[in-house]
Amino acid sequence: MPRPHRLSHLLLASAITLAGVAPAAAFTPEETGQIEGIVRDYLIRNPQVLLEALDALEEQRAGEMQDQQREAIAQAQGELTATPPGTALGNPEGDVTIVEFFDYNCGFCRRSHADMTTLIENDPELRFVLKEIPVLGPESEQAARVSLAVRHIAPDRYPDFHDGLLTTEGVADESTALAVASDLGLEEDAVREAMDDPAVLGALQESARLATMLQITGTPSYVIGDELVPGAVGAEALAARVANVRECGRATC
């Protein structure tokens, strides 16, 4: 068994080795075995250290991802907040914009639709921009293409269409979406023709590109100020971030 001062040296050496500072070849086979034994014994006696290390790693990775997302948001700010005239919900000249990435067949998106309605009703200076990312299969892609076709040929009806389809029970697909468009007085032939318009297909590709840039992994996801907010966090949490943007220019002050 190494003497106390030698033990402290070996512990330090093991930490340096684990950190990748010193190569294993810097130690003799006997010293390497001693280091491995010391580390193993310590971890067996203190298993909570592994959990603490994993928590620290998760926190570090989350921070790195958030930094990457902030940088991506800054780079794509103009594209994120852009939407054709007449298709922004709420106040088109609002001082703060919330960008929502959603899928018409996402249950959380449907439940959080009421959050958007509440925020718009309670905040006359809020602007909402919708980005369609049909991640839940062919039916979602069909619904998104109909939706963007409606936005293309009748932008003033897009908010009503969005509300109608997102609150319709059952699977949102081409037939369901066309029925909502018909209820708004839009001709099916015109909508079908617009579904293949390069502008519609380009809008879908653009939203997918932005979602990839921001490392979005699910819907709904919101961009508020400099921050990506994943999940159906509720109207109160979204409103708090909007207030922060007005106060300090960032989603978290």
From TrEMBL:
InterPro entries: DSBA-like_thioredoxin_dom, ScsC_N, Thioredoxin-like_sf, Thioredoxin_domain. Residues 1-24 form the signal peptide. Keywords: Disulfide bond, Oxidoreductase, Redox-active center, Signal. The keyword rRNA-binding does not apply. PROSITE patterns: THIOREDOXIN_2. The keyword Signal applies. Coiled coil: none annotated. Residues 16-247 form the Thioredoxin domain. This is DsbA family protein. It comes from Aureimonas populi.
